[in-house]
Amino acid sequence: MAEELTIRNAKINDVNDVTELDARITGLKKHAYWKDMYARYGERDKRFFLVAMDHDHKLNGFIIGEVRAWEFGSPPCGWIFAIGVDPDNRLNKVGSRMFDAMTDCLSKTGVDTVRTMLARDDELNMAFFRSQGMMGGPFIQLEMPISEQLSQGHGL
Q1: Is the residue at 39 inside a domain?
Q2: What mean pLDDT value characterizes the chain?
Q3: What's the confidence (pLDDT) of residue 71?
Q4: Looking at residue 120, which CATH number applies to its domain?
Q5: What is the 3-state secondary structure (H, E, C) of 45-73?
Q6: Which H or E run contains 8?
Q7: Of residues 48, 56, 14, 46, the one with CA closest to residue 31
């Protein structure tokens, strides 16, 4: 239950549980990826890798964010770029509590804005972030397959 939830900084021993939870959510087991994410974001200045644990020390969710500055002219702001909640606990406010904990961490660094980026068809996370008060921001993400650039002669 959400009342018995502890949100804390991730530890190296949490990586296996994060890998397993992410595999349940995405269908892909990416242990090396999560180990690297911990190395880059675990217990670092202005980088945060938080986990939500229940009273039995079972992982209920994770969230990762950081402060970024001056990319494309953007003043310093917080970014949330990974969140996962145990599907069996999605209605227990685990995501909301982790979001609040992350925005608290980010706020303590001095930033006053938080951003994220989602796939257009990611309805679950879109609904979640909107329920937290997030809305479209001032930037637009653009992309192009690199192979297209190379075939048009813009490459080497």
Answers
A1: yes
A2: 92
A3: 81
A4: 3.40.630.30
A5: CCEEEEEEECCCCCEEEEEEEEEECCHHH
A6: strand 6-9
A7: 14
